[in-house]
Amino acid sequence: MCTLEKRGRVYLLTLTGADEHRLNPTLLDAVRSALARVRSEAASSDGGAALVIAAEGKFFSNGFDLDWARASPSLHPGLMTAALRRTLADLLSLPMPTVAAVTGHVSAAGCFLALSHDYVVMRADRGFLYMSEVDIGLPIVESFMALMRAKIPDPRTRRDVLLWGKKMTAVEAEARGIVDRAVVGAREAVEAAIAMGEELAARNWDGEAYASIRKGLFKDVCRGLGLKEASDEEEEAAASAAAAKLPSSKL
Amino acid sequence: MCSLERRDRVFLLSITGDGQHRLNADTIASLRSSLAEIRSQVAAAPGGYSLVTAAEGRFFSNGFDLAWANEAGTPSGSRQRLSSLVALFKPVVADLLSLPMPTVAAVTGHAAAAGFMLAISHDYAVMRGDRGVLYMSELDIGLSFPDYFMSLMRAKIADPRTLRDVTLRAKKFSAAEAEARGIVDSVHGSAAETVEAALRLAKELAARNWDGGVYASIRMGAFPEACAAVGLAEHDDEEKRKTFVSKL
């Protein structure tokens, strides 16, 4: 399903196997377990960290496991979307910068997974980014739509991705602001993502502050994914804790 | 008024006549009935379709019929008439934002105020390059915008500087400038060439054979604030889940 390793300050989560990495509760639970380990290891270590998610084979992820959904149409679709919502909530609340290394085709729900990272590096020489829903005739539930709106603010790009079902190469996706970098080669894309992660981790940011800022940036998306907003008391407590760390001359 | 023709899977709605195509109760009713006709034809024979909206003459549409509003004779009477036009036009925008097929505006001439809104209510806009401007004239005539105009502009013109130039500078955009700033998708020569380009695009879109209901659902999810502003309720997740399951 997935492996987790540490490279310097970067946690590298890899979706293993040469398959399409279709998102079903089994794979998503494996990803969530790995993310929970990342969280607990980072909490007990000093200094900054970052997460990179990559995948083996020709696909980053080709979306929901529709075969699994068909096996029990009244039950499985709901379980699948709930599992993805929880996974995206984990990523959006992760107390460190996150980088998706899109090493192959990424489509539909796979795009939700990739775009819920802070940064996206995508393989340039092969693979497409493709929101296939319009072509297959599948509606997109609001919580995932909110993510797409937040990450693709340009109306024309949003239309081309969602309403035209454009298959974009990494180069086009970078030009249109959907991904941050297009890198030739799968291995090179992963190395670039790790280098980016290392650079971000070296900033030694406070993980909770980072996560809090990210959640504020994507407030509506987080609410839709069921992430609780910090209560006023929590925010005040965090502010006093931060103020206590400032040198006295700055107060 | 409007004429509606069908060219295979593409509906061509034309605002007819040589005038400014000012929007009043009659022209609006004509638009709405054409859009209703389109809906009923596709409900009877599901498949991939698309719409092109074009206009004859030098104007796409120069906005609301202010002359009619002013014929009220008093300032409050004029204001009331203008309010009625604002209210009547809102469902046209709603019809377009919920239309179960891709939509292309062939901006064949000047598009100002509500005429500009008519254009950007479409998914795609192609514009003639040899003449014509896009222009939100309201500031120049001392009017503000209805809420739904602002929501629609915010949805379709996301760049803050462009939005400011459109609304707070009352800038007249040539087709080339409109394309450069992301307001229209492409520029063509004459009006006829623009309509041809729109029909080509529409044909390509119709050939994708999209499920119209899902297309409209995704469109409304992509621009929810604009849709809410014109009274469109988003399909809730339960409806979407049912559609999802039916497609498996």
Automatic annotation (TrEMBL), chain A:
<dbReference type="Pfam" id="PF00378">
    <property type="entry name" value="ECH_1"/>
</dbReference>
<comment type="similarity">
    <text>Belongs to the enoyl-CoA hydratase/isomerase family.</text>
</comment>
<comment type="pathway">
    <text>Lipid metabolism; fatty acid beta-oxidation.</text>
</comment>
<dbReference type="InterPro" id="IPR001753">
    <property type="entry name" value="Enoyl-CoA_hydra/iso"/>
</dbReference>
<dbReference type="GO" id="GO:0006635">
    <property type="term" value="P:fatty acid beta-oxidation"/>
</dbReference>
<dbReference type="GO" id="GO:0004165">
    <property type="term" value="F:delta(3)-delta(2)-enoyl-CoA isomerase activity"/>
</dbReference>
<protein>
    <recommendedName>
        <fullName>Delta(3)-Delta(2)-enoyl-CoA isomerase</fullName>
        <ecNumber>5.3.3.8</ecNumber>
    </recommendedName>
</protein>
<keyword id="KW-0443">Lipid metabolism</keyword>
<dbReference type="GO" id="GO:0005777">
    <property type="term" value="C:peroxisome"/>
</dbReference>
TrEMBL record, chain B:
<keyword id="KW-0443">Lipid metabolism</keyword>
<comment type="similarity">
    <text>Belongs to the enoyl-CoA hydratase/isomerase family.</text>
</comment>
<comment type="pathway">
    <text>Lipid metabolism; fatty acid beta-oxidation.</text>
</comment>
<dbReference type="GO" id="GO:0006635">
    <property type="term" value="P:fatty acid beta-oxidation"/>
</dbReference>
<protein>
    <recommendedName>
        <fullName>Delta(3)-Delta(2)-enoyl-CoA isomerase</fullName>
        <ecNumber>5.3.3.8</ecNumber>
    </recommendedName>
</protein>
<dbReference type="InterPro" id="IPR001753">
    <property type="entry name" value="Enoyl-CoA_hydra/iso"/>
</dbReference>
<dbReference type="GO" id="GO:0004165">
    <property type="term" value="F:delta(3)-delta(2)-enoyl-CoA isomerase activity"/>
</dbReference>
<dbReference type="GO" id="GO:0005777">
    <property type="term" value="C:peroxisome"/>
</dbReference>
<dbReference type="Pfam" id="PF00378">
    <property type="entry name" value="ECH_1"/>
</dbReference>
